[in-house]
Amino acid sequence: MSTETLARPHPSTPADAASDAGALRQRYAAVRALSRTLAAPLSAEDQTVQTMPDVSPTKWHLAHTTWFFETFVLHAFDSGYADYHPDFNYLFNSYYEAVGPRHPRVERGFLTRPPLEAVLAYRDHVDAAMLRLLDRDLPAEATGLVTLGLNHEQQHQELIVTDIKHVLSCNPLSPAYVPAPEGAHHPAGPLRFVGFAGGVLPIGHDGAGFAFDNEGPVHDSVVPDFGLASRPVTNREFADFIEDGGYARPLHWLSDGWATVQARGWNAPLYWRRGEDGHWWHFTVHGLRPLDPDAPVSHVSLYEAAAYAEWAGKRLPTEEEWEVAARRQPVAGHFLDGTAEEPRAAAPNTDSDVPVQLFGDVWEWTRSAYSPYPGFRPAVGAVGEYNGKFMCGQMVLRGGSCATPPGHVRPTYRNFFPPDARWQFSGLRLAEDS
Amino acid sequence: MSTETLARPHPSTPADAASDAGALRQRYAAVRALSRTLAAPLSAEDQTVQTMPDVSPTKWHLAHTTWFFETFVLHAFDSGYADYHPDFNYLFNSYYEAVGPRHPRVERGFLTRPPLEAVLAYRDHVDAAMLRLLDRDLPAEATGLVTLGLNHEQQHQELIVTDIKHVLSCNPLSPAYVPAPEGAHHPAGPLRFVGFAGGVLPIGHDGAGFAFDNEGPVHDSVVPDFGLASRPVTNREFADFIEDGGYARPLHWLSDGWATVQARGWNAPLYWRRGEDGHWWHFTVHGLRPLDPDAPVSHVSLYEAAAYAEWAGKRLPTEEEWEVAARRQPVAGHFLDGTAEEPRAAAPNTDSDVPVQLFGDVWEWTRSAYSPYPGFRPAVGAVGEYNGKFMCGQMVLRGGSCATPPGHVRPTYRNFFPPDARWQFSGLRLAEDS
Amino acid sequence: MSTETLARPHPSTPADAASDAGALRQRYAAVRALSRTLAAPLSAEDQTVQTMPDVSPTKWHLAHTTWFFETFVLHAFDSGYADYHPDFNYLFNSYYEAVGPRHPRVERGFLTRPPLEAVLAYRDHVDAAMLRLLDRDLPAEATGLVTLGLNHEQQHQELIVTDIKHVLSCNPLSPAYVPAPEGAHHPAGPLRFVGFAGGVLPIGHDGAGFAFDNEGPVHDSVVPDFGLASRPVTNREFADFIEDGGYARPLHWLSDGWATVQARGWNAPLYWRRGEDGHWWHFTVHGLRPLDPDAPVSHVSLYEAAAYAEWAGKRLPTEEEWEVAARRQPVAGHFLDGTAEEPRAAAPNTDSDVPVQLFGDVWEWTRSAYSPYPGFRPAVGAVGEYNGKFMCGQMVLRGGSCATPPGHVRPTYRNFFPPDARWQFSGLRLAEDS
Amino acid sequence: MSTETLARPHPSTPADAASDAGALRQRYAAVRALSRTLAAPLSAEDQTVQTMPDVSPTKWHLAHTTWFFETFVLHAFDSGYADYHPDFNYLFNSYYEAVGPRHPRVERGFLTRPPLEAVLAYRDHVDAAMLRLLDRDLPAEATGLVTLGLNHEQQHQELIVTDIKHVLSCNPLSPAYVPAPEGAHHPAGPLRFVGFAGGVLPIGHDGAGFAFDNEGPVHDSVVPDFGLASRPVTNREFADFIEDGGYARPLHWLSDGWATVQARGWNAPLYWRRGEDGHWWHFTVHGLRPLDPDAPVSHVSLYEAAAYAEWAGKRLPTEEEWEVAARRQPVAGHFLDGTAEEPRAAAPNTDSDVPVQLFGDVWEWTRSAYSPYPGFRPAVGAVGEYNGKFMCGQMVLRGGSCATPPGHVRPTYRNFFPPDARWQFSGLRLAEDS
After folding, report:
1. How confident is the model at residue A209, as a pLDDT?
2. Is C415 strand, coil or helix?
3. Mean pLDDT throughout A135-150?
4. What stretches in chain C show pLDDT beneath 70?
5. Mean pLDDT of chain A
6. Closest-CA residue in chain C for D394?
7. Looking at residue A386, what DSSP letter applies?
8. Residue C9 pLDDT
9. Helix and strand totals (H; E) in chain B
10. Which chain C residues are Cβ-neighbours of A48 within 8 angstroms?
C-alpha cells in the first residue's frame, strides 16, 4: 500500500463475525488500544517529526485513524455527535479528495500543534462517542464502515512501527524504540524448493468475510506448475550477494533498478551499516545491533529483490503462485504481538514439503505489477473514492510482516508499494519454473 | 519499447522466409534504404540535435543501426572486415553493457562530430561489407542476426520519425518535416462496442517466424468475455474530455497520473496548441495545422488514456484482450509508407462487428503492465543481454502506428513505454466488461 | 549572518567593561536567562521541528549556544570540567570544521532525542560550571571567549525568534508564539530625505570595546554626499508597489531577482496573505492579524527591496552611507525586550533632520555586497576558523531588528544574508544621490 | 559579463575616432569579418548545438549580433530597410524585454532552422544595408549605436571561442577547433610582488572615448598600499595546490565554494583531465594536449581562484587595485589575433618592477563584487534597459583574455561572471597587503 491502502468492504461481504454488536465493540476497543500501546514508548517530540515524505508522524497516525471514524461513521450515523475541533478535518484527512482540501503530506512533520495531548484527547472524545454508538443497533452499512475503520487502523499500526523506525534511524544516537525481547535464536533452515501443481485456479477473495476490494473479484487464472522456496532469503545469503559485487555491476538488475542504485548510492539494504571492522550492523527497532545472519533479509526494494533472484539463478514468484501456495496454510506466523520486533528465523519445521513463514516476518515482493483483477470496478463515494488509483507503477507484496497486527492479513491480501520503497519490512522468497 | 527494444530471434525460431539468401539480401537493401529515405528531407543540423533525453538525433540512429550490423554480424562472421573507425563502437553503442563503455545517452546531441557525411560513409562501408557477406552461404546464426538487425533498424525508423517530430516541435518556426499528402478525408465512424468471447486462450507467439523474445512463450491465459470499441478514441472525443475539465480535476486520474499533470502543467495531449481564437491546432510532421477532429487522438500518455477511459465510463483493454481481438484480423493498416504521415480516420467499414484500425495509425495503450510471460527467460550473450531488464515500470502498447514500417508488427507484438511517455504516436481504444 | 556569524573579539580589543569579573558573571546569567525566557512559551514539539534548511529548532539553538561555552571555554580553562554527554559535541557543533565532524544542518529537525529536558539539563550543567569559573580570576583570553560566547548567544536569540516564527507559520492553525502587547499605535511619519555630507571618512570599528572581526579594521573610505530617507519603507507603501504590478513585471528587478520571483511564485513579502476580501493579512509572532500599514515592511529579500527602490525612483544605501548616518545617533530603538514583537511605526519625531528607526524594528538591506574590509585577515584557530568564508554571495544589512537583543548591535555592525533570504525581520530604507 | 554585457555609450562620450564616417565603415567591415573568420572552421552541425545553458551556438551568435544592428540601427535610421525575415526578431533577441518576447535561452540549441546558410544570408543582407547607411552622414546617436554594436559583437566573438570550446570538449573525440600555432615556448617568469602606492585615487572611466556604462562614472576611491604579483598563477603552481589536497579539504574555501566543489565533484580546473599515467592533460582549442605548466591557469571559478590565493597565503586583488596597476601600462598582450589560441607564458621581461600579462591571456578574478559605482544610474530605453540588473551575485574580472578581440578592453573595463563560472579563460593573479 502506498503508505496506506484505500479500503472498503467487499460489495458482496455478508455479515461477518465482527458484525455481532458485542464482538465489534470489543474489537473496536482492542484495536484502538493497540495504537496507544505502540505510541507509549515515544515522547511527544518523537511523535511529531517526519524524516521523509513517505513517513508520517506517530501523532498524525493517531489522529488520522480517529478522523476516519469521526468522518465516515459518527458524522453519518450519530446525529448528536459534536466535532472535537473544526480544524481537524483539514489537518488529518489523508487523500480523500471528495472530503475536501487537506494538509500537504510532506508537511505533516510541521504540525507541532495540535500537541500530542490534544490528539490523545481527540481519540478519547471519538472513542467515547463510538462506544456509545456501538451499544446501539446499527445498520449493516455502519458496522461495515466500523470494520473498515478497524482494518484501516491496523494498516496505520504497521506504519507507526515502520515510520518511527525510520525516524529513529535518522538520529545519530541510534536510539531504540523498544527493548529487545529475550528468546531462543533459531538458525535458518536449509533452502529447498517445494513443487506446486498449477492449472486453471481461482485467485482472489470470494467475498466471505471482510476483504479489501482490491482482493476481488475471485476469478480463474492459469497458473503453471512452479517451485517455491521453503523459506525467505536470509541476511546471510543477501550478504553473499553483496560480497559478490551485487551492487557494483549492472548485470542482474532491472534497468530502473540499476539507475536507482547509482542515483542513490545504494550498497546494501536500508538500515545495514558496515562497521569499522567490516562486519555488518543493523539498525533495528531495538537500536543498532549486529546483523542476524539467520533472519530473513528485510528493507529491500523490489529492485534489490529482483536482482538477488537473478543473481541466484531463480526468479520472484507471481502473486498468483504465492496465493496458491499460501491458501493451503493457516494464517499464522510472527506478527505484531503488542510490541514491535524484528524478523527472525522460524523454529525448525519437520515437514520439508511445506514452505514456512509465508505469513509474518517480512512482506514478500512478487514480480506482479499491482493491477486490477478482471471485473474490478472502483467503489462509489468518498470511502472508496480512489480504489483503483494506485493501480499503476506499484508491485504486489504478500503475506504480512512482523509489524502487521495479527488477524489483519489473508492469503488473498494484496499489499503494494513502488519498486524503490525500502522502509517497510519487505523481503523476498525465491521461485522457479517447474 | 524504451526508445528501442532489446530483441533477438525467438529460441525456437525455425528458418523463416527471409533466411532464403536472396530474399534476405533484398530485404537488407530495402530496409537500409528506407532509413536514408527518412533522413533525406533533413539538414545535417536537423539530424544532430537532441531536444530531450528520450530523443536521439537522426544521425545517431543512422549510425547506431549500422553499428549493430558491424558489431554483431561483421565482427562475428566476416574475418576480413576492417572497422570503419575505431571510435564508433564507443559512440554508437546504445546500452549493451557487455560490449563495453558507451557515450552517455543524454549527450547524444553533443556529437557534432563525426559529421553527417562521415556517418553516411560509415553506412556505405558497412552496407558494402554486408552485401558481400550476404552473397555467401551463411550459418543460421548469422542470418538470424541479420534478421534481428533489420527488425532493430525498423524500430529505429519509427524513432527517426517520432524523434524528429519532437525536434522540430521545439522550433518556434514550426517547420514541416515532410509535405502533407493529398487524399480523401474520412469522418470517424460511429463508436460501437464489439463483443468477444473469452475462455482459456493461447496468448503470445508460437515461434513460427520471427518474433522478439518478449512475445513468447505462447501460453494459456484466462480471458473473460469482453467488449472492444470499434475504433480508437478520436481527437474530437478527447477534446470533449478537455472541455469537461478533464485536466482540471483529479477525479478520473491514476494517482501518479494526477501528480504528473500537476508537476508538468499538462492540459492537452503533446503537440496540441490552443489558438488565440480558442481552436485547437496540432503540430504535425507537416507543420502546424488545424486539429483533425476525426483522426485518432495521439501523443497521449497512459495516464491520459486511462483518465479518458474512466471519464467515459469504460476502461482500457488488457493486452490479452487486444491480442484476442487482433488475432482474427489481417495485419493491415496505415503504416509508414516511405514517408511520414499522421494518424487519420479509417475509410468507412461496412462490417460493424469488426473493430477497425487495430493495426497502424496509433499504438494503443493497454492496462497491462509490461511483465514477463510465464516461462520467459532472458537470452544469453550481448545481443540478448538485457531482454528482461525493462520489465518493470512500463506499460504495454499494441498494434503499431503510422510511423511503424509495414511488416514490422504482429498480433503478438508487445511495445512498451513508461506511463508518462507521450512522444510516440500513442492513442487508445476503449474496452468494457461483458 | 548566514543563520549565525562567526565571531571573535577584534584582535586589538582592550579590556572592555564586561571583563570586570562581576559584571561578566552578571551578564552571563542575564544573557543565558533570556534564551530560556524565549523558549518558555513553546512545547517540546514546537522546539523540535525544522521547516526549512535555514531554520534550526529552538532546542538546537539552546544546545548549540551551550556547546559553545563547553567547547571553547570550559574545555580550555576548566581542567576539572566533565562533559555532560559525549555525543553532544557531534550533535550540536554548527560548522566548525576544526572541531570535528558534525550532524548535517538539514537534519537538525530529526533530533527528537535528546529530549528537551536533557537539553535544559545540559544548560544547567554548563551554566553551573561557567558560573563557578567566572568566580575565578580568568585570563583575558578566557573573558574574551566568554564575551564572544554571549554575543554568539544573542545572535541565536534572534534566530530563536525568527525560526520559530517560520515554524509556526507552516502550521495551518496559524498559532501565536506570544500574545500581542497592548500599546499605542503610531501612524508612520512623512517620508523625507535627509542630506548627509560625504568626504573621506572612517568606516568600521576602531577596536574600542567588543566587535566582530568583520567590522574592522577601521579604514578611510570615499563617501559621496547622499540623502537618506527619514524612516523605513512601510507596509502601506510596499502594498502600493504590489498593486502597481511590482511582482508581475520584470522592469524594476535585478536579473537574479526576477528569476527568483518566477521560480518561487513570489507575489508579496513572506508572511503576507491575501484574505478572501482582498485585504492583506500578516502572519506574526502573535498569530494571523490584519496587516499594519504603518509598520515598516519586513520579511522582504534584497531582491524585493531593490525592486521597490527602483520602482520608487530611488536606490538602496551603501553600507558606508548607512554607517555615516547612524554613527551620529544613539543605539536605541525597538529591540527584543524580553518577549518577541513585530516591527511598528516609531513615535512621532519633531526633528525632521534626523532619520528615525535606524536601529531596531527591521534590518535594513544595503546595496553593498558583504566583502572584507581593506586589511581584513581571517583569525587563526577554531573559533575564528572561517571568519571570511561567507564573504561571497551575500549582502550587508544594518541596524538590528525587533528580534535583536538590546546591546547587541553597533553603528559598525554588519549583518549579512543571501539576497533571496526573507525569514529575518528584513526591510529597507531608501537613499538617493545628492 | 553574464554571457554578454549590456552596453551603451557612456552618456558623456564625445565623438571618438570611430565616429569619423570612413573609419567607422572600415571598422564595421573588419569587426563583422572577424566573426565569420571565427566560424569558418566549423561545420553547420558544430554551429548548432548547445551543451549547457551558458553556451550559445555559434550560429546564434552570428545571428544575434546581426539582429542588434537590424533592430537598433536599421530600424531607427534607415526608413527604407526591409527585414530579412519577420521571425528573426523573436529568435535572436537575447534578453531585451522591451523589444518583445524572445526564444528561451536554454533552447537556443534547438534551432536547427533557420539553417546556417540562412543566417549567413541574413548577415549579408544586414551588412549591405549597414554599409549603405554608413556611407551617409549619420547623427551622433546613430554612430554611437554602431560603435556600441561593434563592441557588442566583439563580446560575442569572445563567446564564440569559449562556447565552441565547451561544445567540442563534450565530444569524446576531443576534436580541435583550430590547429595549434607554431612558436617559441617561454618558461613562466619568477613570481615577484610589485608594490604600489595607494591614496585617494580616481577609479573608472572618465568619458573620453567609448566605454560601457558600468565603467563610470569616474570617482575617487581610497586604495591602500598593496602588492601585486608580477604574473598570473601558472598551471604548475595550480597543480601543486591540487597535489596538496586543495580540492579535498574545506580549509581554504569560501563556504559557497566548498559546497560547489562537493556538489559538482570538482577536482581540477575545467578541461583538465588526468591521464592514466597520472599526468595532466588539457582540452584546448587545439584538441587534447599535455598541460603546459608555464601557461597561466585558466578556466577556474572565483571559488577556485580564492581558495588558491588563501592556500598560497595571499589574496585576490580588488578591482580598484588592479585598475591602479594597469592604468600605467599599455593595453597590449596576447589577445585574439584572428584565430583562437590558448593562454601562454609571456616572453621574458627585464623590468622586474612591472607586472606582465595584465592584459590578455586570462581574465583575472578580483575579490570585488560587481556593484554600481557611486552615481551610476541605469540608462533609459531598450538598449540600456537593464544596465544595472546584473549588479548582484557576480564578481568582477579584469584585463581580457586570449579570446578577447584586440582593442576591446581598457584599464577600466569591468567583466563580470557568477563565482562558479568556469568556461571563460578565467585565471588569477595574487595580491598582498603592503
Report:
1. 92
2. strand
3. 95
4. 1-19, 95-100, 350-352, 379-387
5. 92
6. C393
7. T
8. 37
9. 10, 12
10. 45, 48-49, 112
How many residues in chain D? 434
Tell me the three cell numbers of residue D83: 527585414
CA distances to A261, A283, B86, D395 from D418, rounded to whole Å, are: 33, 43, 40, 6
Burial bucket for residue D15 (CB in 10 Å: 0-12, 13-18, 19+): exposed
Cβ neighbors of B356 (< 8 A, separation 6 or more) are B189, B230, B231, B346, B349
Closest partner CB to D48 (pick from B48, B90, B172): B48
The answer for residues whose C-beta is within 8 angstroms of residue C387's C-beta and 6 or more apart is C6, C8, C213, C214, C378, C379
Question: Does the distance separating the beta carbons of C392 and D257 come in below 8 Å?
Answer: yes
| CA distances from residue D379 to C225, C229, C254, D67, D397 in whole angstroms, order as listed | 22, 24, 15, 21, 23
The percent of residues in chain B predicted with pLDDT above 70, rounded, is: 91
Specify the pLDDT at position B386.
52
Q: Longest C-alpha distance within chain D, in Å?
A: 65
Please list every residue in chain A whose beta carbon sits closer than 8 Å to the beta carbon of residue B220: 222
Q: Which residues contact A160 (CB under 8 A, 6 or more apart)?
A: A35, A38, A39, A58, A61
d(CA B95, CA A216): 40
What is the rounded end-to-end Cα distance, in angstroms, of chain A?
Answer: 31
The Cα diameter of chain A in Å comes to 65
Backbone angles phi, psi at B395, to 5 degrees: -120, 155
What span, in angstroms and rounded, lies between the C-alpha atoms of C83 and A166? 29
Alpha-helix runs per DSSP H in B40-139:
58-69, 75-77, 88-92, 116-134
Write out the residues of chain D at the interface with chain C, using a CB-CB cutoff of 8 A.
2, 95, 97, 200, 219-222, 224, 250-251, 253-258, 302-303, 306, 318, 367-369, 371-372, 374-375, 377, 386, 388-393, 395, 419, 433
List the beta bridge partners of residue A432: A227
Chain A interface residues (partner C, CB cutoff 8 A): 43-46, 48-49, 51, 87, 90-91, 103, 107, 109-116, 167-168, 170-173, 175
Matching residue, cell 533570504: C421
Q: Identify the H or E element spanning C141.
A: helix C140-169
Q: Residue D95 above 60 pLDDT?
A: yes
Pairwise CA distance, residues B48 & D51, whole Å: 12
Q: Which of C349, C356, C351, C332 is nearest to C404 (CA)?
A: C332
In this structure, the strands spanning B219-223 and D415-417 are unpaired
| 8 Å CB contact between A159 and A35 | no
- In angstroms, the first-to-last Cα distance of chain B is 31
Q: ipTM of the assembly?
A: 0.93
| Band (B198; pLDDT cuts 50, 70, 90) | very high
- Measured between CA atoms, the residue of chain C closest to residue D220 is C222
Could you tell me how many CB contacts below 8 A there are between chain A and chain B? 85
Neighbours of B79 (CB within 10 A): 7
